[in-house]
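stage 2 :: seqdesign
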């Protein structure tokens, strides 16, 4: 390290990536500054993961009251005070902030936390515009750019003339809309569609693609789509938004649905069409850091073309998940400050849509395996055979694992069902550490648990590798008198 710089490490941005990067840098003994123009915690704490999951839980509770009969109770109609729901969500956000994100926590680690906006002056110097309007110039040996992203709003005719919502403003509304229009059928749009529908709003989702959740398994995504439609969510698929306009108290969206013009009106409009990197205002040109519309260009070490400047998380445009932001920060700081080579783990990336049921994915998709010419076997197991799911009246769903036939090496997995996000984690650990389906199948899991479903799905490796001639040979050698199982069904489940 050079003593000519005021800091060993400066982190720009206090979201998931920035908090991880600054905490690790301080833990490695580096003199560290963390710069954030808003509140620490970033999107996850304030406008993303935390509030959305709290809203989904409130909506799920309302849904369970309406459908209490499935648990042997009496169906009822919940009394929903939306203001109280939002107050509850705001309290949870604040609790998470106070417990995990508050500046005092990081200052106790020896990190200097500064509220302000940073811009590069050159490769090693920053200018910070502070909250009081004054500026401060600082320098550092290493930089970690973790400035995150923001909602991407497409150039729709009239969009600037209507009071539309994005994920940044959605959790500040106080009244439950009678009708809400959601543009975008990705994970955020899908989660909010189910939540608002269950809380009593009429929901219409407009999606330009032919299906929702285009990055997930088509069959499982279709099962979830059918469930949401059954619950009352309205969908317009393959529909292009032409314009939006305000008519009195209503927002009217004009769409082209297969050549037919349709008008959709609602009290609120939520635009959920992806995210874009927060590269504006950083003056990256002065630092010699390249970027595009997608974000800052980095290597698998999270390194820019400058040997001392790294970028992590949403600002790179590579992944839009909190867990990947944290992972990338770990990669960057380990490379820069610990001098240990580490790469982004692109082969074992999980993601989850937290609807009810949840939809989770890990690793390679079936389509990717086919494109790569990889020989694999698909192992399926239904939630209807997971006893814990049945006790919870959660028997809807499927576990699908893609693995090498003879060795049981796991290539990827898709899960639709209760606690899918938890189950996918077991396969993530297995994939990362070379644990095969046979290893999982031979591992004792407690009964009755959802985790046992992960093991029973792995059991199908044994079933698929069993053949009729093997059974006949056993019968002949040992004189067994039972029937030979029916091997004609390639998807049989035992």
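stage 2 :: out
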């Amino acid at each position: 390290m050079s003593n000519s710089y005021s800091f060993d490490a400066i982190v720009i941005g206090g979201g998931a990536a920035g908090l991880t990067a600054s905490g690790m840098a301080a833990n490695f003994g580096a003199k560290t500054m963390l710069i954030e123009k808003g509140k620490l915690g970033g999107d996850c704490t304030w406008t993303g993961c935390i509030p959305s999951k709290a809203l989904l839980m409130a909506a799920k509770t309302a849904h369970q009251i309406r459908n209490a009969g499935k648990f042997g109770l009496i169906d009822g109609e919940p009394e929903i005070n939306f203001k109280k729901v939002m107050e509850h969500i705001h309290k949870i956000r604040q609790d998470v902030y106070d417990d995990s994100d508050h500046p005092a926590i990081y200052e106790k680690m020896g990190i200097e936390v500064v509220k302000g906006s940073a811009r590069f002056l050159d490769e090693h110097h920053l200018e910070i515009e502070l909250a009081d309007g004054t500026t401060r110039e600082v320098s550092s040996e290493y930089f970690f750019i973790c400035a995150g992203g923001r909602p991407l709003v497409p150039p729709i005719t009239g969009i600037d003339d209507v009071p539309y919502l994005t994920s940044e403003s959605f959790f500040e509304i106080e009244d439950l809309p009678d009708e809400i229009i959601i543009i975008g059928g990705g994970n955020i749009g899908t989660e909010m569609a189910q939540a608002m529908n269950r809380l009593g709003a009429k929901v219409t989702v407009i999606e330009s693609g032919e299906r929702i959740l285009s990055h997930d398994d088509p069959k499982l995504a279709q099962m979830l789509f059918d469930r949401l439609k059954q619950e009352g969510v309205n969908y317009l698929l393959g529909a292009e938004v032409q314009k939006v306009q305000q008519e009195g108290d209503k927002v009217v969206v004009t769409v082209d649905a297969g050549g037919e013009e349709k008008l959709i009106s609602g009290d609120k409009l939520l635009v959920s069409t992806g995210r874009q990197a927060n590269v504006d205002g950083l003056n990256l040109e002065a630092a010699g850091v390249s970027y595009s519309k997608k974000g800052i260009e980095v290597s698998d070490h999270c390194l820019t073309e400058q040997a001392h400047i790294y970028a992590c998380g949403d600002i790179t445009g590579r992944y839009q998940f909190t867990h990947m932001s944290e992972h990338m920060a770990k990669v960057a700081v380990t490379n820069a400050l610990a001098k240990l080579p580490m790469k982004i783990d692109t082969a074992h990336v999980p993601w989850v849509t937290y609807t009810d049921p949840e939809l989770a994915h890990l690793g390679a998709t079936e389509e990717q395996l086919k494109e790569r010419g990889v020989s694999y076997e698909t192992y399926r197991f239904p939630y209807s055979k997971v006893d814990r799911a049945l006790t919870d009246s959660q028997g809807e769903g499927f576990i699908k694992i893609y693995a090498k036939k003879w060795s049981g090496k796991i290539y990827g997995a898709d899960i639709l069902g209760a606690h899918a996000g938890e189950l996918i984690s077991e396969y993530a650990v297995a994939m990362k550490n070379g644990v095969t389906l046979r290893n999982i199948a031979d591992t004792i899991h407690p009964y009755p648990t959802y985790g046992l479903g992960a093991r029973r799905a792995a059991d199908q490796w044994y079933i698929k590798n069993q053949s009729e001639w093997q059974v006949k040979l056993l019968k002949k050698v040992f004189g067994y008198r039972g029937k030979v199982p029916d091997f004609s069904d390639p998807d049989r489940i035992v």
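stage 3 :: structure notes
- The first helix runs from residue 16 to 27.
- The chain has 16 helices and 20 strands.
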